[in-house]
């Protein structure tokens, strides 16, 4: 097996931060030597997430070392070689995901130590495993860490994180109110509403209708106890309008800024309703968790519970378009850039996933 594991890998690399179309290229690089304590890995599939793009642009707080950074943070890899000293706990074809950001998943092969990896249990499908560590974990943490009982409202409810929030609310017995942008046609909007309802969404409101009095009336009847947690992926006026629907002393957690607009909340929401504003970033949560045994246990517990929900069919990955990446062929770079362009399109409705299989 060692003889067949390549010494070089192909990867999407960047030497400086900037526009992805300008700074990324498909390059070859030398893999670390395989030793008795390392695993040789082959990529199965890797998503293109909004934060991957921000990282390449240099506007994301976690910055890999450049020059020579390999892009991509999340993905599923398969063990192709097991170092001699690891033979009792690892085998060929075990599936793993990177434990931390900056692993560089947009590549064909990698060499890593077991402590950099998390083994995925059998029965968890490839796509769910490949998208577990960012979106599914973030949705889980926000529902567990800020207010773990009351009704939840969220914007960008059709996003990867949003769909996980809907399914986890259902699994945890919490009502969800879900804000989405209207599609180009009425039929397409209705189709999206049906799709989110089938995931377990209780109420769906089109973004432009949030401020309408009908929406307040609807919520008064559907959620008489009031909404205690708002999860904000968008910012701007969309976040402000969402905050106005909250119950007294509710918490609004910002985890994304898809509109790139800041938001100003009226003082009345603080004075008369005591609305609390918080933020969430999965990478920071993980960094803190790694510092203590309790934190490490909380991480393992979360992964185990998410895997159990996936295996029980209660949690699925967001719709994905799988793009086969022909690494051995000349157009491998063009295929990658076409996938990247697609991933950056608004209202695409699915996650772009690069697959080597
Ligand atoms: N803080 C954290 O730890 C953490 C973890 C995971 C993700 N995130 C962030 O969460 C966000 C979503 O990630 P994802 O992977 O779930 O994304 P995704 O699946 O690509 O979905 C993007 C979502 O954003 C919406 N959107 C885009 N531009 C918008 C605008 N101007 N106004 C309103 N909605 C807009 C899209 O709605 P349409 O379908 O209508 O275009 C879609 O619902 C990203 O910003 C990501 O970086 C943060």
What does this structure look like?
With 357 residues, the protein is an alpha/beta fold. It contains twelve helices and 16 strands. The chain has helices at 20-23, 50-57, 126-130, 132-145, 160-172, 186-199, 213-222, 236-243, 267-271, 282-289, 293-311, 332-343, and strands spanning 8-14, 24-30, 39-47, 69-70, 76-82, 95-98, 109-112, 117-119, 151-154, 176-180, 203-206, 227-232, 251-254, 276-279, 320-324, 351-355. Strands 3, 5, 6, 7, 8, 15 and 16 form a seven-stranded mixed β-sheet that branches. The protein has a six-stranded parallel β-sheet with strand order 11-10-9-12-13-14, with helices on both faces. Helix 9 (267-271) links the parallel strand 13 and strand 14. It is globular. The protein starts with 7 loop residues before the first strand and ends with a strand. The model has no long low-confidence stretch (mean pLDDT 95). Bound molecules: NADP nicotinamide-adenine-dinucleotide phosphate.
């Amino acid at each position: 097996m060692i003889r067949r594991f390549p010494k070089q890998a192909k990867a999407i690399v960047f030497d400086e931060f900037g526009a992805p179309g300008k700074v990324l290229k498909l390059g070859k690089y030398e893999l670390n030597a395989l030793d008795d304590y390392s695993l040789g890995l082959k990529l199965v599939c890797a998503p293109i997430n909004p934060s991957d793009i921000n990282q390449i642009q240099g506007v994301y707080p976690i910055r890999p070392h450049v020059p020579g950074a390999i892009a991509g943070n999340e993905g599923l890899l398969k063990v192709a070689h097991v170092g001699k000293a690891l033979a009792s706990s690892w085998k060929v074809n075990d599936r793993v995901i990177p434990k931390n950001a900056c692993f560089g998943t947009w590549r064909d092969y990698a060499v890593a130590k077991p402590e950099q990896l998390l083994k995925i249990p059998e029965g968890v499908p490839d796509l769910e495993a490949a998208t577990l560590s960012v979106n599914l974990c973030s949705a889980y943490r926000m529902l567990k860490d800020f207010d773990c009982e009351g009704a939840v409202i969220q914007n960008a409810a059709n996003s990867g994180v949003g769909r996980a929030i809907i399914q986890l609310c259902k699994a945890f017995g919490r009502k969800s109110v879900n804000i989405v942008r209207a599609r180009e046609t009425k039929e397409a909007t209705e189709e999206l509403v049906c799709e989110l309802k089938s995931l377990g969404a209780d109420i769906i409101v089109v973004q432009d209708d949030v401020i309408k009095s009908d929406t307040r009336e609807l919520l008064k009847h559907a959620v008489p106890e009031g909404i205690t947690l708002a999860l904000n992926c968008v910012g701007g006026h969309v976040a402000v309008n969402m905050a106005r629907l909250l119950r007294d002393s509710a918490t609004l957690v910002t985890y994304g800024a898809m509109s790139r607009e800041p938001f100003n909340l009226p003082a009345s929401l603080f004075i008369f309703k005591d609305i609390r504003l918080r933020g969430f970033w999965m990478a920071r949560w993980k960094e803190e968790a790694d510092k203590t045994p309790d934190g490490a246990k909380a991480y393992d517990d979360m992964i185990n519970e998410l895997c159990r929900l996936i295996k029980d069919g209660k949690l699925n990955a967001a719709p994905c378009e799988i793009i086969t990446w022909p690494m051995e062929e000349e157009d491998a770079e063009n295929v990658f850039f076409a996938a990247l362009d697609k991933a950056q399109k608004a209202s695409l409705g699915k996650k772009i996933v690069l697959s080597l299989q």
